[in-house]
């Protein structure tokens, strides 16, 4: 909602307004810090607002969900091609049920009484075939952790403005010389050099981090650990990549004076020193859903899983932006059981470095540009080492395997379906993209008209998944209505056709640089996204731009 907040702030020039993002315990922590820094009023919403009220001594204004907000979110949710459940506390579900009954929407409502009910209920709903969960932050975050689509019910501009007006009214009665009380607690123990203790609200009540300049645990890391603690009911261990080192977190729950606490022990591993050689680690911990409504994708996923579970190396054949790497990430998230995914660009790795890679925590490897190391025994030996350790091996390529390659390993080739082979996936892909942009940018569009969808179907033979995603992004940003119209889409397709014309004169290196600059421009100079579309890593992209 930051975009909406930014639009509202200029309407209140007499107030000094600052904003930050953090849900539940993190939001309470940010609010406490804001109070220590002199804030006189806090604005929040839902469960986070309730936690903040307990954490601070200054007024807290709760942003209320309007009926307009609820209708907009439920309309978006009803466009999803699958079973959808509304999960939340009674303040959300009571209003949601009334709107669902009134509008005859195909949605089911489930009311929870505490945040502890969320994980159990979502697992039951997933087992019953539900694929999308609509609710507040904790519900949506837990849903995504379990591989479900999550749709956040957001407060609109009207609700934000109303809260700011209330804050302005309250501000008139506040003293500007409010005393600031800061309590510091700094305890250090030799026995546990890196220790965090969180209370039942996930507030940090003890922190001793000898090996870290600051707490390396993000909100997502803490949420994942706590979700697994609640599910496993025993000690759990997770490994993450932070900057250039591996972070291992061991966590368990304990009780003292009838109060529950979570104890985290952190271990900082040795620096991962190979990133400059095209060896990177995949650190995203949320399970990203994959669209597989089409028979082509269903067969693809079934066969890849069968090969993966039998520890066979897989050769994924397809265009650079056909989703090969995304599919590898999906397999890693769903079936690896934790650990690390290494993405290796063999064109960047110097000879002799593959066997220096520490593999103790690795569960899967993704190998790119193997065509440049076809006769290299080191590559063969490295792959065999991974297979012996039952590490999944995915080799990505754009050309069929040459039968005369000296790679002395039997590979199973799986061809990535083109978008033209996945027509059944077109509508759910577009809906997923629209939902992402609704969350990220606060865009108005929540669905696409059938005639606009038909226009895209006609363009599919010349389009990749990445190009489709870019087109829908531009349409969502430019559409002022709730439904993407044919006019908006036609205009963008015409502009895209005009801007796709590039000069092809000059040397091969000059043409290559022109293409890179073109993709960078389309991705708003985001090098990570540009590198992903081009099928190279950021180090290679940076080097080519400097040449």
UniProtKB/TrEMBL annotation:
InterPro entries (UniProt xref): AAA_lid_NorR, Homeodomain-like_sf, HTH_Fis, P-loop_NTPase, Sig_transdc_resp-reg_PrpR_N, Sigma_54_int
PROSITE patterns assigned to the protein according to its UniProt record, in alphabetical order: SIGMA54_INTERACT_4
Name of the molecule in the record: PrpR N-terminal domain-containing protein
Protein's UniProt keywords contain Cytoplasm: no
Pfam families tied to this protein: AAA_lid_14, HTH_8, PrpR_N
Positions of the Sigma-54 factor interaction domain: 303-477
UniProt keyword annotations, A-Z: ATP-binding, Nucleotide-binding, Transcription, Transcription regulation
Keyword Transcription regulation: yes
Organism of provenance: Paenibacillus illinoisensis
